C-alpha cells in the first residue's frame, strides 16, 4: 500500500470448499482461474474509484499459472478491467501432464504426492470421464477429502499421502492416457498474448520440474510471446521472487518497455 498499489486477492472458484461441499475447486484449470483474476480486477475498479486504470498480476505456483492464463485471456475477456501492464508468474505449474508421467513411473516427490491427488480430483470435477477411483487408491484415496477441503487436519492428511506407496497413485494405462488427454488442455501457453510476462523459477524445485518450465518458455517464444525469465540457482518451490518481480512491475508502471529473453 505504501508504494501506491491497491492489492486484490481473487478467491478462485470452489477454493476452500468444506468436506462434502460442492463443487470442488477445478485445480489448475486455466480458463477458470484466468477469468477469476480478470473478474477481480473489474470488481476492484467498481468498488473504489481511487483505483487507477492500470493493473498487474503476480502469482506463485498455482497462482503463477493463473497469472499466465489471465494474460492469455485478457484480449478476449478483459474489457472493463482496465489496462493490464504485465504479468509475473513465479514457480508456475505450467504442465500438469508431467505429474501424470511421474505418477505412472513411480517418480513423484513427497511434495508432488500431495499435489497430484488435488489435480486428479479437480479434473474429475470438470464433468469429464475421469473417476478418481481409477487413479487414487489406499492411503491416498482415504485422505483425499481432507486434502481438498479446509478441514483442520488437512496437513496431517498430507503427511499420510507423502508416506503412501507408489501403487496408491498409479492408474492402468488407458485411464492414465485419458487423464493426459484432458490435461493437455491445461498446459500453458495455449495461445499468444500481447501482455509482457516475467517468469521466475528455481533449479531445485521439488514440485515443478525445471525442464517442464523451460519447455513452456520455449513454446511461448515460438508463439511470439514477450517473456523475460530468471532461473534461481538452487531455488526451490518456496523461493522469494519479490526482489526481481517488484523491480520488473515498477518498470511496467513507469512505462519502461519490457525486454524479452526469447
Describe the protein in words.
Helix content is 44%, strand content 10%. Strands 1-2-3-4 form a four-stranded parallel beta sheet, sandwiched between helices. It has helices at 30-47, 62-77, 97-105, 110-124, 138-147, 154-162, 173-183, 210-223, 242-253, and strands spanning 54-60, 83-90, 197-202, 227-232. Helix 2 links the parallel strand 1 and strand 2 (83-90). The protein has nine helices and four strands, in the order H-E-H-E-H-H-H-H-H-E-H-E-H. The protein starts with 29 loop residues before the first helix and ends in a 9-residue tail after the last helix. It is α/β, with parallel strands linked by helices.
Structural descriptors:
9 helices; single chain; globular; alpha/beta; 262 residues; four-stranded parallel beta sheet; 4 strands
Amino acid at each position: 500500500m505504501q508504494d501506491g498499489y491497491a492489492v486484490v486477492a481473487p478467491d478462485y472458484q470452489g477454493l476452500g470448499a468444506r468436506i462434502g461441499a460442492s463443487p470442488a475447486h477445478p485445480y489448475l484449470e486455466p480458463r477458470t482461474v484466468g477469468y477469476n483474476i480478470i473478474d477481480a480486477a473489474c470488481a476492484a475498479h467498481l468498488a473504489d474509484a481511487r483505483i487507477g486504470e492500470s493493473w498487474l498480476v503476480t502469482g506463485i505456483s498455482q497462482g503463477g499459472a493463473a497469472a499466465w492464463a489471465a494474460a492469455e485471456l485478457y484480449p478476449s475477456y478483459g474489457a472493463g478491467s482496465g489496462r493490464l501492464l504485465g504479468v509475473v508468474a513465479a514457480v508456475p505449474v505450467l504442465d500438469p501432464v508431467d505429474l501424470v508421467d511421474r505418477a505412472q513411473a513411480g517418480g513423484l516427490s513427497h511434495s508432488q504426492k500431495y499435489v497430484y491427488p488435488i489435480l486428479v480430483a479437480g479434473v474429475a470435477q470438470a464433468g469429464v470421464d475421469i473417476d478418481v477411483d481409477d487413479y487414487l487408491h489406499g492411503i491416498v484415496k482415504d485422505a483425499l477429502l481432507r486434502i481438498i477441503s479446509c478441514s483442520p487436519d488437512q496437513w496431517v492428511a498430507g503427511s499420510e499421502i507423502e508416506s503412501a506407496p507408489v501403487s496408491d497413485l498409479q492408474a492402468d494405462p488407458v485411464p492414465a492416457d485419458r487423464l493426459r488427454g484432458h490435461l493437455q488442455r491445461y498446459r500453458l501457453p495455449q495461445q499468444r498474448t500481447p501482455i509482457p510476462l516475467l517468469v521466475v523459477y528455481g533449479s531445485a524445485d521439488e514440485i515443478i520440474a525445471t525442464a517442464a518450465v523451460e519447455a513452456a518458455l520455449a513454446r511461448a517464444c515460438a508463439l511470439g510471446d514477450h517473456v523475460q525469465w530468471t532461473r534461481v540457482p538452487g531455488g526451490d518451490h518456496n523461493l522469494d521472487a519479490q526482489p526481481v518481480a517488484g523491480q520488473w512491475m515498477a518498470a511496467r508502471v513507469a512505462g519502461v518497455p519490457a525486454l524479452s529473453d526469447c
